[in-house]
């Protein structure tokens, strides 16, 4: 992750990506985007069309990323369960991140599971970051104890 750039870059991915809530697969695609940033595992953004109808519900609140702009939040719904504010998107992303306007990121620790190429993702520590950790990425990662201010 230390070889990832700052500012971050967005790149297309052809990996198989799935999102599960309430025991149901609510999202699946083989065309997503990864945001790569120094000291973070990749964050995957799935096209809205990858999600089951009714699984994305607007949620309150926004946040600001110095690189991508203002994010809006989504509840993710599946199997009778609601993962509150587990998804986010950039309705008007900054230059260089325009492709993310039609995509949704998911906080792996807030859903049943996220899967990349049949490997269950481990969530990035800290509850704030949305990185997806697989065996293909090596830390340390920002978010764990003692990593504030990296």
UniProtKB/TrEMBL annotation:
This is DUF427 domain-containing protein. Gene3D superfamilies: Domain of unknown function (DUF427). It holds the Pfam family NTP_transf_9. Residues 17-108 form the DUF427 domain. InterPro entries: DUF427 (IPR007361), DUF427_sf (IPR038694).
């Amino acid at each position: 992750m230390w070889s990832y750039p700052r500012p971050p870059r967005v790149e297309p991915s052809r990996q198989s990506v799935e999102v599960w809530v309430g025991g149901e697969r609510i999202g699946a695609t083989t065309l997503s985007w990864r945001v790569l940033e120094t000291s973070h595992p990749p964050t995957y953004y799935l096209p809205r069309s990858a999600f089951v109808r009714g699984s994305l519900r607007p949620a309150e609140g926004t946040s600001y990323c110095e690189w991508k702009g203002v994010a809006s939040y989504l509840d993710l719904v599946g199997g009778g369960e609601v993962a509150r504010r587990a998804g986010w998107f950039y309705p008007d992303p900054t230059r260089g991140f325009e492709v993310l306007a039609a995509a949704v990121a998911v906080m792996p620790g807030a859903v049943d599971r996220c899967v990349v190429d049949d490997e269950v993702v481990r969530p990035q520590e800290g509850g704030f970051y949305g990185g997806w950790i697989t065996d293909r990425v090596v830390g340390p990662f920002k978010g764990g104890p003692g990593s504030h201010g990296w």
